[in-house]
Every structure is written in structure tokens, then in C-alpha cells.
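User: Show me a protein chain along with its predicted structure.
Assistant: Here is one chain, sequence first, then C-alpha cells.
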Amino acid sequence: MYPFRLFRLLGLLGPLTPPLPAQGLVALFLWLFVSLSLSYASPVSSLRPVPVRADSLSAHVYAQPIPAVNSDPRRNPTEPALGAGSANCHPSSDLALPDYFLLMKRKAKAAITVLSSLIAYVSVNSLVRAINPQAFVWSHEDKDEDYWIGTSPSWFDRKACRWLGICGASHFRPARDRLGHRLPGPPAEEGLWQSWLSGQNNSVNWDDVERNRRVIPDYVFDYAPLVHLFSNEQFWPCDPADHLFHTTPMLNYTQIESRSQNETLCNLDELNQWNEGWNVFLTSDDDAEDRPRWMEGEKNIPQIEGNDARPWADWDGRVEGQVPDDTPEERAEWFDAGDAVVEDEYRVKEELRRRYGGEPMASPVTGGRSHAPAVLLVMDKGNGIVDAFWFYFYSFNMGNVVFNVRFGNHVGDWEHCLVRFYHGKPKALFFSAHSAGQAYSYEAMEKIGHRPVIYSAEGTHAMYPTPGIHSYILPWGLLHDETDRGPLWDPLLNLHAYTYDYANDTLRASTSNPSAPTAWFYFNGHWGDKFYPLADGRQYRFAGQYHYVNGPLGPRFKHLNRRKVCQGPDDRPCVVKDWIVDSKRPKRWTGVGPE
């Protein structure tokens, strides 16, 4: 998720990027050095090698006229005197000696300029760090910069990291198609999947009001997204309960809990007693580069039996003319939920009374079942607006590659898709992708039946509306995700559903699974390892980008109370596209929505 900052640091995006941190300026200095060196060099007029003469250093002396000296009286008068005609012995046309020495002088000046600039950079860099250290904090990892660099046993590595932004160069290994290697051995022990059923079931004590709070409308399930996983994926969906079984909670890098009792979905929030959970990391018991089976999740590949459903292979998602049932006036009503008022619980509108009461669904099977469950959170935001968040968990995120260098690996990965409904009709979807994402109208989406189809990218699991190559941040496809029509995953076949009241910060198990635990949702820590120290052979950092970064926070921190469908701050623009394939044709919605 983090490689997108790489060329922002290098400054190649120009005015589109915020000011560069000082540690990234080293790349600009190196570019300046090369430019200065080339500017000082003389143009080459010939590709012939410069001849080497033993007396080249004194040639200019011999080229001057020297008076003849008659020191030998026995010398024949007809012979030329010493020095006479010496200029003809080494004609100036043989070597352009003045040009050669001028070139050497220019190269010396260029070298002095390079060294002076480097010294100036190091001095300014140190001064800025002393005056304003926050200028170098671009991520959570950067907050631990001093300690992180200090873990390296190499003095040269520490200085190169502080001065040049090149950290752990000796640890660097060119990126390969497959991360690490699987160690031989028996399959890993199964986790406690039963913990999904270990919550308290107090449904017999629910009154009508409480039951109504937990009921999810039928239409949320009717329009549940289908997910195409990548065909050559290396890290498939995983069960959060199984993930907990193979991790140890750490306060930064120090173990804080005995392994005599595993953390489960029912008691995970108890870890918040250490620094309120903010610096708690669920650290893998295995090395990710050994590719443990529980982390790969191959057993969770969706299996489809007797399914003939096919998506629209040629659908480009462009909606010609007016979007059905979505006039500009109606879009203004659901685009921003900030002014919405939740209806009185005793006066729920008729379209919200169609509820799913926990009976098996009768809809036909259109995708495969995975042993890894999806998590559904439904929020009623008032005025007929209902947001359905679909969360998908993976035990490992494999970062992308830039110039044969892989950045952004991390243990644990939460991805999500949001479907916004207005009076029971789907209006827009948002797909998470790295630290950003994109919103699309429901009508533009590819569908199987009336269920939207989304695509999960290889390794990063970023979500997109189409198969293919998806470039982001950098030009020319230097940084991209790839999706295809791999195994089709139907989250409805293995699902844990909840309703969430943001105002009271209350998560409730739905009527379809009243025993589902809720404590895991309130865990404030990270669902993966803390980024590895510089002393760790798996870690390096170039231009501010880490090979391994911190594990992610959980669903509670995905801006669930967003007013618009986009995940960013509510005061930022949010464009809901009516097409899913970029082209030069004019866009339908070019603004940020109604004022």
C-alpha cells in the first residue's frame, strides 16, 4: 500500500505532489551532480583514442624554441645544434594538449562541486532534522526513525541511512515473482474457527426494539458483491480466527501475553489495556518469507460446483444517456449523508421492513464458497441511506515492485467494499485500493444477475471494477496492480453479519448469526507485525519506502461514519464514476457532487 510515495519523494510528479521531505532530496542532488558533470565536460569531436606518449608531460616545453648550445668543439658544424628543430620532433598537431589539460581541469571542478554539494546536503539535512524533526515523518513507521536506524550494527549503514536515505543496502535482494520459499514440513495446526460461534447468544432476551436493531434488510444480501480473486494469487483469503491462532501479541517488539492461552475473537479487546492497544501488534509466529501454509491460505480458494453463470466479458461499464433511477436531484439526496437524520425506530419506512430473519437464502449459487469468512457491517445513516461494508481478510499483503525493488509487504490485510443503498436500491460502490480507492455508480458495474462483480489484485488485494492492469500514482505503468477472472468468490456462502451504531460505537451480531463475537472489533492495535528493525535481514528502505511496513488496523478504523461513499475525509472531493474503463470520452460527473 505504501510504494505510491516513492516517486513523490523523488519529485517526479512535480507540482502534483506536496513538498518533498529532506531525506528524499538526495535523489535530486544526485541528478544535479550528473547534470553538473555533463555541463563541465567538453563536447567530443572524435571517437579516436587519445594517444599516449611517454614525454607528453614535457611536450609543451620542447615545443618552444631553444637556443643552440655549442658545448662540444668537436661537433661538425654542418650538424644542427642541440635544440634546433626540436619543435619539429613533437609537432602540436599530434596531440591537442591544451584541450586535454582544460578537460582535466573541468573534471576536477565538477568533482569539487559534487563533493561540496554533498557536504552541503548533509549539513542542511542534519540542521533541518534538529530544528523540525516532524518534517521527516510521513508514516507511522517514521515516528520510530531514531530507534529503527540505531538497531543496525553497521556504522556505515547507519550513516548512509541518515545522510543518503539508503538503509539496509546489504539486505537488498531483487524482487522475484514468488515471495520467499515454503519450508518442508507437515501442514500447520488448524486455528480455532469455532470462536466465530463462541459469542454470547442472548437472542431469547431481545425485545422487539433490540431485534429490530439487529435485523439486516434483504436487499443488502440480494446485491452482495461477488469477488474475482487473481488466478495466480499467492496469498488467498484467510480466517481472522485462524490468524489469531498463529500470532503473538507484542507491545512494539516485546511480548506481552503468555502463549498458554491464545487470543480469540471473544477476548481480543483485552489487549487494549496496554497503552490502549495503539502499540500492540499481532506478530506472526512464523517468518513470512518461509510461506507458512496458514498465511498462504490455499485451503480457502473458492470452490465452484456446477456453476454456469458468466460475467459480461465485454462490458466496459459506460452508461449511455441518463443513469436509470438516478437523476441529479435524487443523487443529491444520497450522495452526502451528513445531514441525514435516522428515522424513529418505531416508524421505519416500508422498504426497510423487508428483512432477513436468519433463514437460509434461496438465491441461486453464482460463486464458490471459501473457508475464509467475509464480514458484513451494515449502518443505517438515516433518510433511507444504508451503507453495507463488506470486509475481506488476508493474512499477508505482498507489496508491489518498482524498478525490481519490492516495497510495502506486511502481515495482515483488511480490504473492503462499500455498497450504498437509497430506499432499498443500490446507488454506488466504493472499492478500497491501497490508501485510497474509487467510487462507481451501481449501473456502471459489471454484474452477474444483479450482483456487482469486483476484482481483487494479485498480492496487494486492492479492489477494482475490471480485470487487467491498473496503474496508479506513477506514469507509464511503473507501479501497477493486476487483476483477472480467477476463482469467483461468493461471500454470502460464508458470512458473519453485524449492524453498527456509530453514534454509540455499538456493534451488534445480526439475527442471522446471533452468537457471533464482537470483542475483536474493538481491538485498537495492528493485525500484523510491527515493521522490522533495520538490523533484520529482511528489512531495507530506499527513498523513504520500507520493504516491510506495519500491519493494518481493523475495520473500526476504516472511516465507517463517512458521509460520502469515498473513504477519504468528508471535506475532500468524491467523484462517483458512471464508467469503469477510463477513456478520453467526456465524463458524466466531473464535479464532486452537489453543494
